[in-house]
Amino acid sequence: MNRSRCTERTTEALGPSHAHEFRILTAPALGHTHLMLLYTYAVNGTGEDGHTHMFQGHTRMAAGSHFHRVIGSTGPAVPLPDGSHYHEVTGELDDEPFQPKGGYYTTILSVPRHVHSYRGRSGPPIGVEPPGW
Q1: pLDDT digits over 82-94, tens only?
Q2: CB burial class (10 A; 0-12, 13-18, 19+) of residue 49?
Q3: What is the pLDDT of residue 6?
Q4: How many other β-carbons are positioned within 10 Å of the β-carbon of residue 37?
Q5: Which residues contact 53 (CB under 8 A, 6 or more apart)?
Q6: DSSP string of 68-114, one letter each residue
Q7: Opening angle at CA 21, ends 19 and 25, nearest 5
Q8: Is the predicted pLDDT of residue 116 greater than 50, yes or no?
Q9: What's the whole-model pTM score?
Q10: CA atoms of 48 and 59, how far apart (whole Å)
Q11: C-beta pairs of 30-36 under 8 Å, 24+ apart in sequence
């Protein structure tokens, strides 16, 4: 096989590898909310190519009692005038309330299962190399 004839998309053509941070307050349920502080998995992309990111994590504890897991994907890249972009997310948290116990998590039976919805937008790309690197 003649490798010189193989065509590969370059990093420049794909856009820079980057991630995004999200800070979102969930909608209330059972009289409380949760803060979601998440980072997406890194992908290559630009504000013009419609790329998306996957994410997973968990919320902060609510009133010291429990947290929820979250898994999802962002909407497509939304370009900004400065050439960067952001992503929007919307969804619902896992309905099972958890609590840390020793080195693992356990379901809290004293807190009823409940769902929090969330909606928000990311910050700009993080982890992008400066121009000229």
Answers
A1: 889 999 999 999 8
A2: middle
A3: 39
A4: 12
A5: 19, 20, 40, 41, 42, 43, 73, 74, 87
A6: -EEEEE----EE-TTS-EE-EEEEE--S--EEEETTEEEE-TTS---
A7: 150
A8: yes
A9: 0.83
A10: 30
A11: 30/111, 30/112, 30/114, 32/62, 32/63, 33/62, 33/116, 34/59, 34/60, 34/62, 34/67, 34/68, 34/93, 34/116, 35/59, 35/60, 36/60, 36/70, 36/118, 36/120
Q: Are strands 117-121 and 88-92 parallel, antiparallel or unpaired?
A: antiparallel
| Both tokens assigned to 79 | 């370009």
C-alpha gyration radius of the chain: 19
Structure tokens that stand for 111 in this block: 């807190």
